[in-house]
Amino acid sequence: MNIRRSAALVAATVAIGAMGAQAASADSASPSPKTAVPSGLYGKSDPTYDGVWRQSLALVAQDTVGVKPAKKAVDWLAGQQCENGGFAAFRAEPTKPCDAKTKIDSNATAAAVQALAAVGGRDGEVAKGVDRLKKTQNADGGWGYSQGMDSDANSTSVAIGALAAAGEKPSEVKSGKGKTGTDALASLALPCAKGKDGGALAYQPDKKGELAANADATAAGVLGALGTGFAPGKGTAPDAYTCEDGKSAKDIAHNGAVYLQNQLDTHLYLKSQLAGATDQPDYGNTADAVTAVAAAEGVKATKDSYTWLEKNAKGWAAQTGPAAYAELIFAAHATGNDPRDFGGTDLVSALNKTGPEPASTKSSASDSDETKDDGGSGANWWIIGVMFIAAVGAGFLLSGRKKQQQ
After folding, report:
1. Nearest to 332 by CA among 297, 301, 360, 290
2. How far apart are CA 324 and CA 266, in angstroms?
3. Quick one: which of 39, 224, 348, 362 could link to 160 by a disulfide (CB 3.0–4.6 Å)?
């Protein structure tokens, strides 16, 4: 959702490029954090580029399954907010006032709003975050990664999710030109006439204004069009596989789900495309696609892919950390499966172990065999960074998994 909806990162092109030669094997690495990890934060890897993102997904996932997060975890997230309501990816010194050098971004802000709205008792912070999102909405109705940047499907979708979580009506949140987030998503949707790519969303138009199907952007866009956040429930619409022309929110969600259904039918999972390396399964985007399809069109087309995740994604989640466990919990929730029995693994217990002990939990299951998170997410974000630069030629990373999909 999941992207993102994944971590919102910003990295210099030169730093990304320097890691290109190592990218193919970086998944097996667990580099030591360069920045001290606060005790209230989930995950043990360097939080510089994904602290707020992974914390937000962890808190939303816990709330989804009836777990009350630790107060220190919620306090840490709330303490990352700047006075203007925005959030950066991570602030090592949250007691220092934010200034012009603070890299506030819409992804971290919207994710934090979703999390703080979910756990409750943080109305002030939620209201300030919503106000920040409204002030940074682009003329086309969407949101870019940071203020002044062009709208993209992922940022727009997570912002819509934040508005909905805060009790706003996204369809009534309009830019100065009267455009909504749905209008921005519609401008990024490929028409049905595009054949196998019909119904997909592009992340952004390329330099020539052309749209290219992007599975990550599509999964995010489906949830944005549905007006839901990271953790949608199981959809009630009948399973359907036909792209239908239209620009309404319902059309965008349906057509995006059709595209993702076809992708999952082809391989059971989505593939990452890393320059210079053999294509690998993309567990995060597969989980996001399963969540999106189940939320929009029902669970029939997700059963085989969900089973594939149960058999193959546990190692990825153990290495990657809290955001990965959260994505799998969202997939289980949307498909009506038990996240405490994910192919024999208790995802909830595994997530809880990556950070401070929750205040309370409804889980009656014993702890799984998953070990406490020793890091991992930092490595994955860097791999994705290389991919993103190769895919769109940008000098910064807008989302932990914004890349082209097969």
Report:
1. 290
2. 23
3. 224
Please count the other Cβ atoms lying within 10 Å of the Cβ belonging to residue 83: 8
Query: Which residue from 325, 336, 260 is spatially nearest to 292, judged by alpha carbons?
Result: 260
Q: What pLDDT, on a 0 to 100 scale, did the predictor assign at position 254?
A: 95
> In 353-392, where do the E strands start and end?
none
Find how far residue 42's CA is from the centre of its chain.
16
Phi, psi dihedrals of residue 398, rounded to the nearest 5°: -90, -25
pLDDT given for residue 236 in this prediction: 80
* Dihedral pair phi/psi, residue 351, rounded to 5°: -65, -45
Residue with tokens 């490595």: 379
Buried b (16+ CB within 10 A) or exposed e, 178-197: ebbbbbbbbbbbbebebeeb
Residue appearing with tokens 């997700």:
302
Instruction: Measure the CA–CA gap between 85 and 80, rounded to whole angstroms.
Output: 10
| Measured distance CA(334)–CA(313) in Å, rounded | 17
Q: What is the pLDDT of residues 286-317, one digit of tens each?
A: 999 999 999 999 898 899 999 999 999 999 99
